Amino acid sequence: MVLETIHSPKDLKSLTKEGLQQVVDEARQALLEKTSRHGGHNGPNFGIVEMTVALHYVFNSPIDKFIFDVSHQSYVHKMLTGRVQAFLDPAHYDDVSGYTNPKESEHDLFTVGHTSTSLALASGVAKARDLKKESYNVIAIIGDGSLSGGQAYEGLNQIATTGSNTLIIVNDNDQSIAANPRGGIYTALRNLRESKGQAADNLFKALGYDYHYLDEGNDLNRLIQLFQEVKDADHPVLLHIHTVKGKGYKPAEENREAFHAGGPFNLETGEYLSDGNGGASYNSVTADLIMDKMKQDPTVVAINAGTPMLLFNQEERKKVGDQFVDVGIAEQEAATMTTGLAKNGAKPIWAVFSTFMQRTYDQLSHDMALNNQAGTILVYGASVSSMNDESHLGFFDIPFLAHIPNFVYLAPTNKEEHLAMLDWAIEQEEHPVAIRIPVGPLKETGIADKTDYSILNKNQVIQKGSQVALFGLGNFYGLAEDVAKELAAKHNIKATIVNPKFITGLDKELLDSLAADHQLVVTLEDGVLEGGYGQMIAGYLGDSPLKVQNYGIEKAYHDRYDRKQILVDNGISVNNLVKNILKDL
Amino acid sequence: MVLETIHSPKDLKSLTKEGLQQVVDEARQALLEKTSRHGGHNGPNFGIVEMTVALHYVFNSPIDKFIFDVSHQSYVHKMLTGRVQAFLDPAHYDDVSGYTNPKESEHDLFTVGHTSTSLALASGVAKARDLKKESYNVIAIIGDGSLSGGQAYEGLNQIATTGSNTLIIVNDNDQSIAANPRGGIYTALRNLRESKGQAADNLFKALGYDYHYLDEGNDLNRLIQLFQEVKDADHPVLLHIHTVKGKGYKPAEENREAFHAGGPFNLETGEYLSDGNGGASYNSVTADLIMDKMKQDPTVVAINAGTPMLLFNQEERKKVGDQFVDVGIAEQEAATMTTGLAKNGAKPIWAVFSTFMQRTYDQLSHDMALNNQAGTILVYGASVSSMNDESHLGFFDIPFLAHIPNFVYLAPTNKEEHLAMLDWAIEQEEHPVAIRIPVGPLKETGIADKTDYSILNKNQVIQKGSQVALFGLGNFYGLAEDVAKELAAKHNIKATIVNPKFITGLDKELLDSLAADHQLVVTLEDGVLEGGYGQMIAGYLGDSPLKVQNYGIEKAYHDRYDRKQILVDNGISVNNLVKNILKDL
């Protein structure tokens, strides 16, 4: 095996073309085996094997600087930069992250997991080089999907304006097939592909780029030739390279949405091993309710920014037609379009992962909240128990969203409550509303929730007790119940249990009433502690006789953590809570 | 006067071309008189008089929907939609805001003050129209400056993809003159202007637009003709219209940077009445220090996103040359470019208004903080006592920024401290650092600050007292001193006075020590209360014997408020503080 002998990019330089092709073949085989067993971003990596080998053959990393957009397509890059065992040996599969990571290698410049940032990063790296009067290539590799993000366009502008060496590689694997063909960047790229780069109006040339098109983006020799031609240019160059997503694995080439990323799959059939367990989940009941609404009301419309599977599968999207809008990986557009839709009388619902919602603070504040428009935002993965890559953490949402005026942010604790909140959010016309979709198995009470959610900030007292009041927010409501059980069983204390429901405001009447027969308020939230829900309560009760204990996660970029351990590390266990509560009583 | 007889756009319809021209002339004269006496966005409005009259003559607002980007160019629109007295009668000058405002008129769809949002708003308004199967024109008016923001590009993509009636008017008043001519959107626009819309590569056509160019954008008749041609189109249309910024007022045409916005000016000479008081300010000492650094170190580089005057004037920018980068109105690019610069060994300093920093949460978190890059961010106007339009509030910065891991956010209280923090921030290589530039007159101690700011979260105890500890953060440090004086003079209480300096973390050692001889901790912050600094302290001290009182501003979009009154309304006065403190002792 040649691949195993590549310990750094230097080892590629001495290979013949045949040797390089063998590296390509072996790398693709390793990808297939690892992703089929272990899961990961399969399709994007299959398509970029030749390009990655060619890049490392022609350029000299780490002197030349590679910046991979999103960086979920950096697996082959990792293989060629000293980390091949993480792709060959199942015992080492978890040695590397799914993204570039400077802690792993000097060949990885940045920790990246969100899209459309590579050009801005490259513009800074290149500018620093120029200020230092150094000389080398700065190379950003960006997919066509990532080009739909506004930040990519800002980067295109800045690199062109700076005017010095920067190589932008648009890895175009034809996402436009999924998109509407009437206009926009995907149409522009398609026109360029179909004309082999000769289309009359060229966006990149318009911005001043030295533009080159390569149709055979999985042809190693042509890639090498092209890179050699543009290496060391004294100006910005844009290479538009057409690759095949999923290249070399037929199921991935044919089903590109499924083979963007996923868990383990059957190599022979191309079927995911755990594809759909059939059971109801918070995601499925959410989708069902929205689908029903859409049938009844043509102004109900779902907005999505590049993660359509979050709400509907392909078939469902087809069914709802114009009532589903995928704006591309353009969260700012999604948030502000939601505002415009609501203003003009539609009922928009934007489904978004918490970690990507972070791209829209000003759109949520200056557009949606300042104009107080009644759109609904579904916030997925806002939990310590969701994605656990440091680049994809979803638990900063409360300090992020809860202090924006006018917003109503809701934390349901079971299916019936969630659906009642969702129904209310869609139909009301008074407030921008966000719902923190619960993470974990579906909990059903079997009793419809008749709460009037237009009465804002009204907490629900589930059990009236004394001494200690437990505020269990959203996903941590069950923990409050467990603590109460333990206090009752072992210490003869009947705790008050509160389901706050509302994150964006306090039930002051309830809080004021607690001092009469309580000594302690405990807040539990499935998110970062600083700037969160509990601290609002601590501030409100600061000069009352009540003591307050806040529980949540300490702010930090926790990486690939054990989801149970991080709770324990932050003092969040029934035992520790009971112990600390007893101290204050 | 014809203008006074225009109570709604309908009144324009019956006018002859001569009558319309008279409206144009009278509107321009009214603009000149109001802005010269009262201040405001002068240049952008002078340039768009003819266009606004033509738009309201041809289209039918409010059935047809106008959306003005940033909306600081909507003065003439306001004159034609029932609000002319606010431009003719000095007694009514303050009746209208400087931006579109639905509370003023049904002709104003949105409250807008930040750039590049109009296309996303229009995409939503048009989509809602389509879902409701209604028929009218949706028209977005966007300046060339605003087109540099990535959100505008996302909107261009979405409108083109939707494919139904939307009219985008690019009001091109040639900001590219200030920009670097080597590439990017300003170059693309310039090429189109110089070729009268015929340039070989047309960005807008590439995105699928039906593109029209008009060079005589201040010619009323040509504007009317063009609008009539494209009215009621069944597809997206982009009109690229070349106007003259400051049109009709020579000083404004000649000095476009100064005549973008400003206070009252002398109509005859074109000189601003209060242009530069010559005294030192926090802004001037900041600029001086950075200028010195730049001379000593070629890797010190200032980044700016479309507000260059914040740091350096034109002459100073010329002097520092390549060490100043204006990325356009593209805050995301600024934040992430700062990250790239720091990673590759430069010393970047990004100067930004707090209200515009809101556009970069994910860039500050996922790019700068996750990668822990040592750039410096200067946050201007983060105070209740800064801009007071509801669209431009700068006091949400602490919940926004302070809970992002790795960031060090500093709150200086005087000149020497500020300069010491700034010097440290630029030279250190450990953390992303933001500095909350003080708002208000420069306070000097005359004693150089020798604090080692690498010891994070170390608060400074200015006076050691007992009973009550006053934490006066940044701009509110002086208030803490005033309260302490009153407590000493009237109540014989020697309060402890603390200058926290660090917003992003607590001095736990100090806080733990207070319980021995204090009953109360009071926090004072010049910003929103919820999710702020004080609540972190309240959370930390929640189960200590100490009581805590937090003072700040209640979250809301306060509009054109009286800066002293809002403090009083939020309980922030020496008298009220003393009264509340005495209650808890």
UniProtKB/TrEMBL annotation, chains A, B:
GO CC terms: cytosol
Signal peptide: none
InterPro entries, A to Z: Dxylulose-5-P_synthase, THDP-binding, Transketo_C/PFOR_II, Transketolase-like_Pyr-bd, Transketolase_C
GO molecular function, one term: metal ion binding
One Pfam entry name: Transket_pyr
Entry EC number(s): 2.2.1.7
Lineage: Bacteria, Bacillati, Bacillota, Bacilli, Lactobacillales
GO terms for biological process, alphabetical: isopentenyl diphosphate biosynthetic process, methylerythritol 4-phosphate pathway; terpenoid biosynthetic process; thiamine biosynthetic process
Organism for this UniProt entry: Streptococcus troglodytae
Alphabetically ordered keywords of this record: Isoprene biosynthesis, Magnesium, Metal-binding, Thiamine biosynthesis, Thiamine pyrophosphate, Transferase
Name this polypeptide is given: 1-deoxy-D-xylulose-5-phosphate synthase
Keyword Secreted: no
Cofactor(s) needed by this chain: Mg(2+)
Quaternary organization: Homodimer.
Name of the gene this protein is made from: dxs
Pathway(s) of this molecule: Metabolic intermediate biosynthesis; 1-deoxy-D-xylulose 5-phosphate biosynthesis; 1-deoxy-D-xylulose 5-phosphate from D-glyceraldehyde 3-phosphate and pyruvate: step 1/1
